[in-house]
Structures are given as C-alpha cells and as structure tokens.
Automatic annotation (TrEMBL):
Xref: SUPFAM superfamilies: lambda repressor-like DNA-binding domains
Sequence segments annotated as region (Disordered): 186-229
Record's protein name: Transcriptional regulator with XRE-family HTH domain
One Pfam family named in its UniProt record: DUF5753
Domain named HTH cro/C1-type: residues: 19-74
Chain intervals with Low complexity compositional bias: 194-229
InterPro entries given in the database record: Cro/C1-type_HTH, DUF5753, Lambda_DNA-bd_dom_sf
GO molecular function: DNA binding
Length: 229
C-alpha cells in the first residue's frame, strides 16, 4: 500500500473492519452479542467487519469497550480510522459521472502498491492522453453532452496524477498487439458534437496512442453514425 495519506474511505473501512473482527474473535464475542451492544443486528456487524458500511464513532467506542480495549493509543487510533472512513475521497466531486462501485475502485487504486492491467482494445486509462480519453469516452457514452465528456476525461487525467507521486504504485500493463496497430480514435470537435451528436471516427495515422509506430497499419474509412437528439 502506498503512503497512508493516499488511503481513501474504502481502505479505511476495510482496515477498521478487519481490526474490529480480530478484536471480537480474540475476546470470543459473537456477532449477535456485538450487534446487541450497538443496538444493531448481527448482519450489521458482518457488514462493518467487511468494510461495507460507514462507522459511527459511538458504535466503535461501544464495541471497543465490549472487546476490552483499554489502551488509549489503540482506542484513539481506531476512532481516527472511523472518522477518516467517513471522509469523502478526492473523487467525490466527480459523483455526477461516477457509479458507486467505481468510487470504491478508485479508492483501492489510489492505495495500491502494484496495479496490473490487461487490455485488448484500448490503451489503459492510466496511460491515455486527454484527447485519446475523450475519444474513447465518446465511444462508450455516445449520448453524453460535451460537458459530461469533459468531466469524465478530467477525472481520468486526475487519476494519473498518482503516477507522478514520490510513493507511486508500480504499473504493469499488458496490451494486445491490436491496441498498438489499430488506428487511434479521434473525437469530433465540441461544436460538431453538440450539433450532430456524431460518434468518434478512427484516424488512419500509423502512430499508435502509446507512441509506437505500426509496421503495417490497417487503413479504412468510416462514416460517422448519427442519431436524433
């Protein structure tokens, strides 16, 4: 895991949940008994220990008392984790273009020491340029407005910033050869997109998005698809 300053709420919940489970088992307390202590159900304790829900400081305090934790340092450390687990990550401001599952993914990505990715169609998101990202986003979100496409591309560029940090994770990217040989996608201009809702076309350039040059690039032309709206 990279430096703790990069750890977001998902990672904090996992850390706190795992520690609470360890303390409960060491004390021989059942989930049902722990749930009763915080006026909740056994399933609530299970979700807390798996890091799937947020934590109330009062609940953590009551559980630590039940588990016999009287070390002030340990007590304060776990309460700090509870507070940090409820603090939104930097990506929270992009909630309008983020699904809940991808927010968790971004959290884990930011805390990773090693990231492995395999792509058969496009350059991985963490290695895309802004122009390439916009074109790919338009392929997957053809009905999106130029503003939404810009927001999604901005988020993708923000994700890349961690690769420039002092404690950046190692990134292993395995690409299918077709990713480098396939002509790169080119997004239409914003004015064109707003008027005609035209899909991105494919450039016939022999230069790949990653900067490599194909020895025998395939060339073709396409007619942009158009739709109402």
């Amino acid at each position: 895991m990279t430096g703790q300053q990069n750890d977001g709420p998902t990672v904090r919940r996992l850390q706190l949940g795992a520690r609470l489970r360890s303390l409960r088992l060491a004390k021989g307390v059942t989930r049902d008994r722990a749930g009763y202590e915080i006026r909740a159900s056994e399933s609530k304790i299970s979700r807390m220990e798996l890091g799937r829900v947020s934590f109330k400081e009062r609940d953590v305090t009551d559980l630590l008392k039940l588990y016999g934790v009287d070390d002030e340092g340990e007590h304060e450390r776990l309460l700090t984790l509870a507070r940090e687990a409820n603090t939104p990550g930097w990506w929270h401001s992009y909630g309008d273009v983020l699904s809940s599952w991808f927010q968790n993914y971004l959290d884990l990505e930011q805390a990773a020491e090693l990231i492995r990715t395999y792509e058969i169609q496009f350059v991985p998101g963490l290695l895309q340029t802004d122009a390439y990202a916009r074109a790919v986003i338009m392929l997957g979100h053809g009905s999106a407005t130029p503003a939404e496409i810009g927001r999604r591309a901005e988020l993708r560029m923000a994700r890349k910033q961690m690769l420039a940090d002092d404690d950046q994770p190692r990134l292993w990217a395995v690409l299918d050869e077709a990713v480098l040989r396939r002509p790169r996608p080119v997004a239409p201009s914003a004015s064109c997109a707003s008027r005609t809702r035209t899909c991105p076309t494919w450039s016939t350039s022999s230069t790949s998005p990653a900067g490599s040059t194909s020895t025998s690039p395939r060339r073709w032309t396409t007619t942009p698809r158009r739709w109402a709206g």
